[in-house]
């Protein structure tokens, strides 16, 4: 693998899935963050369990986990991975203006799980919106980014601060 260039383009410039067969299996982890901004009254309904569609947090958590497992079906050229662990945490933010999403994905394999973590956070956020849109349509989904990645040849990445 030394000196080899990983690219989604072949010699003719056509899109291809990167061949990772020569890469060694290593333990890999990625953590992604997201946020759904909403009015305090909407957040209060979620936390009290009074949302008309039911348990919003449980549904968003399961949706995020399921999405991580289906990432290669959603993102072109993304490798299907044997994910060993997915955890989606949802918590009210410190200012009470929404829900913070943290998605942690782990595997042992030849490629990382950043896309799976990002997909989990994104789908959890979309599910929060879907479950609450009858009460509030102007919620905002944002701040979806990788905050940690470890494993593989590129080593560890930790985002210094969440903007």
UniProtKB/TrEMBL annotation:
Alphabetized InterPro entries for the sequence: MoaC (IPR023045), MoaC_bact/euk (IPR047594), MoaC_sf (IPR036522), MoCo_biosynth_MoaA/MoaC (IPR050105), Mopterin_CF_biosynth-C_dom (IPR002820)
Name the UniProt record assigns to this protein: Cyclic pyranopterin monophosphate synthase
This protein's record includes keyword Lyase: yes
Gene name linked to the record: moaC
EC number, as in UniProt: 4.6.1.17
Pathway assignment: Cofactor biosynthesis; molybdopterin biosynthesis
Record: residues binding substrate: 77-79, 115-116
Superkingdom per UniProt: Bacteria
Cross-referenced CDD domains: MoaC_PE
NCBIfam families: moaC, PRK09364.1
């Amino acid at each position: 693998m030394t000196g080899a260039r990983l690219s989604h383009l072949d010699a003719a410039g056509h899109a291809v899935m990167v061949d990772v067969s020569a890469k060694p299996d290593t333990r890999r982890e990625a953590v992604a963050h997201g946020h759904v901004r909403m009015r305090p009254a909407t957040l209060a309904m979620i936390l009290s369990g009074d949302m008309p569609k039911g348990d919003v947090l449980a549904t968003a958590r399961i949706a995020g986990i399921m999405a991580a497992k289906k990432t290669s079906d959603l993102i072109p050229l993304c490798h299907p991975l044997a994910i060993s662990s997915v955890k989606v945490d949802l918590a009210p933010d410190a200012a009470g203006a929404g829900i913070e999403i943290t998605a942690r994905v782990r595997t042992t394999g030849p490629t990382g799980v950043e896309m799976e973590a990002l997909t989990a956070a994104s789908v959890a956020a979309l599910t929060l919106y879907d479950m609450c849109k009858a009460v509030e349509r102007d919620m905002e989904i944002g701040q979806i980014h990788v905050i940690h990645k470890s494993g593989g040849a590129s080593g560890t990445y930790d985002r210094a601060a969440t903007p």
